[in-house]
Amino acid sequence: MVFKYKMTAEEYYIGYKYKLKRGKLPDTMLISTVIMAAVMFLLAMEFELGMVYAVFLAVIPVIMLFAEIAVKKKTVLRNYNMLPQLNSQQSIHLCEDGIKLYNSFEKVYVKWERVFAVKETPKYLIIIFSFRNGIAVIDKEKWQSEQLNEIIGALHDNTYVEEGKK
Q1: What is the pTM of this model?
Q2: Which residues touch 57 (CB under 8 Å, ≥6 apart)?
Q3: CA distance 85 to 21
Q4: What is the C-alpha separation between 77 and 79, in angstroms, rounded?
Q5: What contacts 105, CB < 8 A, 6 or more positions away?
Q6: What is the structure's pLDDT at 26?
Q7: Contact call for residues 108 and 100 (beta carbons, < 8 A)
Q8: Which of 63, 67, 73, 70 is nearest to 36 (CA)?
Q9: Contact 161, 118 (CB under 8 A)
Q10: Distance CA 145, CA 155 (A)
Q11: How far is it, in rounded angstroms, from Cα 61 to Cα 16?
């Protein structure tokens, strides 16, 4: 059984954010920012620059983190629009021992036990095939079909599916 669909840039971004969340990358960035802010504050106090400068220097890493987050969405959306393997028609093929994502540029096959993450919300089905490649975000209302129901059933039968509200 083959299911064909096409993601929008916003849907891809939803999958990208979920992949980062499951990969624990945002936690690492936040912890690094807090450590950098604390070090900047302590260095400013050590060199007796005063409380105003210490707070100012401690805020710089936090501002940089927020700037990174703001720029990241724009970058991801631009990459989606520039890369044909992301914005072309995608196909999902169910196999007995795994699942395959392919388009005209790439093929990703993953055994059921190796699927990185799956999340089902009332609106979307998000499949992260591996941390390196393969993101499928399917709008369940737009692509509603018997094949989609078959994919959802196979995912529930063969791998852990995280339930989500959004």
Answers
A1: 0.80
A2: 40, 41, 43, 44, 49
A3: 23
A4: 5
A5: 84, 85, 88
A6: 65
A7: yes
A8: 63
A9: yes
A10: 16
A11: 24
